[in-house]
Amino acid sequence: MVASGLPTPRPDHAEALVNMGIDMQRAVDLYNTNSNQHINIRIGINSGPVVAGVIGEIKFIYDLWGDTVNIASRMESHGVEGRIQVSETTRDLLPDHFQFEDRGAIQIKGKGEMNTYLIVS
Asked: Where is the Guanylate cyclase domain (predicted)?
């Protein structure tokens, strides 16, 4: 899990995450080429408010909670191997230089039907 815009908000948080996802895909492709492997990843991104904090008494862990986190997880688990899937909320925050493939409304566990999009470029 990765978060952008925490603890300091940034107006380009969605774009930064998509660019990181693209970089991750390139790294996996390079690894596959160099090691003769065939590993794929799914990336899901959602944007919105979260609750964040440190938990634990002996071993401290910084964690995130909330509906935004749950939807991001669903974007990944209901996504497509080798692709970045974003929620409509995130798509609306991205600049025009990204292109999208509209997946239409898909059934998202715990949320019902949601419009989702795959990053094309």
From this structure: 1-76
